[in-house]
Amino acid sequence: MDLYRRENYLKKLRGFYHDSEMIKVITGVRRCGKSSLMKTVMEELKEQGIAEKNIILLDLDSKRYKSVKYPEQLEKIIDEYNQIQGLKYLFIDEIQNVKGFEEVVNAYRNEGDYSVFITGSNSYLLSGELITKLTGRYIEFEMLPLSFEEYIGMKKYFGKNVSLNLTEELDKYLNEGGFPKTVFYDNPEDKRLYIKSVISEIFEKDIKRRVKIRNVSVFEKIQTYLINNFGSTTSLTSMLKELHKSGMDIKRETLNRYIQILIDAKILYECKRFDLKSKKSIGGEQKYYLSDLGFYFGTNTDNRINYGPALENIVYNYARSKGYEISIGRVGKLECDFIMRGKSMEYSYVQVSMTIMANKETEDREYAPLESIADNYPKYVLTRNDMIQKRNGIIHKNIPEFMSNGELF
């Protein structure tokens, strides 16, 4: 099978390929490419000279293993490979199909004969059961759908037409999202139908099987509301008011629970506010971004792009895929779209705008929050397709070039 290699994630995993002490847990929204990433790792191991018999794949959603539901069954299958000499590389896909899988994978990790990789339903893998039963001996690799950089790369790899005008490609990406499978559909309606099927699959497999939702129609309305209002500043109080206007009265606790379910299923990400003066998080107000804009595209027939939240959303996801911690910044009365914190605790500040060329007032509005930040960390203004400006040492870049080059903040 020909696979597009997603280097962003492979380079994070490579240092752990031969580590038998740490279980490698690949999480991410359903259909973002976790299974393909595992198969790519298997390919790389073969290229390194690992014997094929030492590389074991158990796809628990496949016809061969779909009856495996209990730990004893899983253990019996793995035990068949015990006689193979040397370190064995065990890949288990859709592991949540086995109730109590944690004890099994932990036991093989303890023996030191297996390097274990697992993927599955993110809402399950991120639950407290994994943390408790694997006693902290695992490392999580979070995966997202295709970033713009990967979207272009995958289209080129599979011979799809890629415009020389990167802004045109960006607009397609904003409309279609980054689920890898959508790259292979040429018809926009086919892409939309596929994304709708992903949403249904997430509900059936990742939500319905794990949590009890008494009123499915209310849950679906809240899901639709949050998908349609991605990137908007919101609070539980303001959401309850909006839902009340549409004739839906629910308890605050229920709304909070439904939002958490959508976050656990990685349909949504929560981005909280941080006050740069007090150096504290601000409770109560946050934004919710989609793990993929395809969720909006797939549930709406209007193809017009609302550039403000859409560009913010892809910048948020891009930064997440690069390993940044992200929050919304407040500087006095001004707001900075994003504070990015890297792994070495370095910071950068980012403003995202469709354009700063409309008029002087627009330009000033985007630069003002950055100019009011006193420290010397890098400050960025990111736009869709503007002439590059120079102002007070603030770095101005256009998003298509910035992302397609894989740049860091």
Shape: globular
Taking pLDDT < 50 over at least 5 consecutive residues as the criterion, the unreliable ranges are: none
**Proportion of helical residues:** 40-55%
Give the tally of β-strands: 13
Sheet with most strands: strand arrangement: 6-8-7-9-10-11-12-13
Q: What share of residues are in beta strands?
A: 15-25%
Summarize the main sheet: 8 strands, mixed
Give an overview in words:
- The protein is an alpha/beta fold and 409 residues long.
- The chain has 16 helices and 13 strands.
- The strands form 2 sheets. Strands 6-8-7-9-10-11-12-13 form an 8-stranded mixed β-sheet.
- The longest helix is centred in the middle third of the chain and has 20 residues, at 188-207.
- It starts with 6 loop residues before the first helix and ends in a 5-residue tail after the last helix.
Task: Provide keyphrases for this structure.
alpha/beta; 409 residues; eight-stranded mixed beta sheet; 20% strand; 13 strands; 16 helices
Quick overview of this protein structure:
With 409 residues, this protein is an alpha/beta fold.
Write the layout of secondary structure elements.
Layout (H helix, E strand, L loop, with lengths): L6 H7 L9 E6 L5 H14 L7 E5 L11 H9 L8 E6 L7 H11 L2 E6 L2 H4 L2 H6 L4 E6 L4 H10 L8 H11 L11 H20 L8 H13 L4 E2 L1 H10 L6 H13 L3 E8 L4 E11 L3 H6 L7 H15 L3 E7 L2 E8 L5 E6 L7 H12 L7 E5 L11 E4 H6 L5
Parallel strand pairs: 1-4, 1-5, 2-3, 3-4, 7-9, 11-12, 12-13
Antiparallel strand pairs: 6-8, 7-8, 9-10, 10-11
